[in-house]
Description:
This protein has about 425 residues and is mostly helical. Helix content is about 40%, strand content about 5%. The strands form three sheets. A three-stranded antiparallel β-sheet has the order 1-2-3. It has a two-stranded antiparallel ribbon with strand order 4-7. The protein has a two-stranded antiparallel sheet with strand order 5-6. Helix 5 (about 125-140) packs antiparallel against helix 6 and helix 8 (about 210-220) crosses helix 13.
Amino acid sequence: MRYREPFSLYRRVNPSGNIVYYYQTYSPDGRRTTAKSTGLTNRAAARSFCLKLWKENQLIQKVDPLKIPTFQTFAQNFWIIGKSEYLKYREQRGFPMSRSYAFNQDKQLQKYLIPAWGKKLLDQITAPQIETWFLGLKDDGLSHQTCNHLLSNLRTILGEAQRRGIVLANPAEAIKPLSKAAKTRGILAVEEVKKLLSPSTWSLYWSDWSLYIANLLSASTGMRMGEVQALRWCDFQPSENPDRIVVTHSWDRKYGLKGTKTNKDRIIPLTPELCRLIMRGCPELGAESFVTPNPTGEKPIYERCLTDSLYEALEKVGVSEAERKERNITFHSWRHFFNTFLRRQGIQDSKVQMVTGHSSVEMTDHYTHFDLSDLKEIQDAQLDLLVPDSQQEINEQKQMKHELQKPVFKLPIKRL
């Protein structure tokens, strides 16, 4: 049987470029503890350093039991921006947390974690206890996704306690999450999409032009709902850049404008036809005005309105509520449709990822190699969505062509 030393060594490259050896010890239940630096660049010297600490009984960090707080004391402000040491630590290293994410994490903490663990000292929380609690959440009827989110929340908090040296190990690391068991997101058929998005018959399916444009934008650009809501005229400037749209923000119903999901801006090409359709809205409003505003014009169109309008339009093209639920079609299905539609057109995955904002390790660096002129295939695909299939629809679109320059509504809002 192979002998296991009471520590393990590995090397890290510091920001200065120097290699330094770190060591990890093991908690009584066999899990690795927080890594510590030896300050040495030679493996043999680092090993001798650790052996010396072991012989002097100083290898394993001692934790003062009088300084161990309860879970509630430690975690009460864990997700509060401006009060959380953890969030400050992340921000200093270039990984800030969005306000909406921190808010939702704090809601979980206050509703589920503190009632379950609040009175326990941090070093009294064990893996078997967490396992029992975790499976109990499932038995109480919470979805697998919610259970996993709560476990991740607890793991993060206990991991921070370990990083600070308050506990020797993070017992939540030993708990495996539940299977996602996610239902596959459905997408509409191309024929259904062309019916819903035909410019000549839009009023048959949509009660308002903004609702039509919001769905058209998502279907033809892959923008997320929050990105469509957050789109302003300063992001879409046909007079300066008539062939593109700049996605810079997403919309949060509690906090308003925020960064995109990946915190990266992206450019999406547009066809002239799509530009003209969008410009039928309110281009005379100020640059900060929303492209798809709500009735007051002060905020973008409401999330519920977008969802309800899509479901109503689906009913009108023959997709019943039961069928919609069975196919699992939601507003986010537009994004899935766009991604699938482009790939079926034979467009390179790298270009699809660049436009949709899907990140991957392999493609992150490759995105920057594309010029907008290289994305004409995307524009061709957008145009194909707007091309009617029947001669009757072709005739209707010819009759409506001169109307495309006219705005369909005006909001009682002053210029900015």
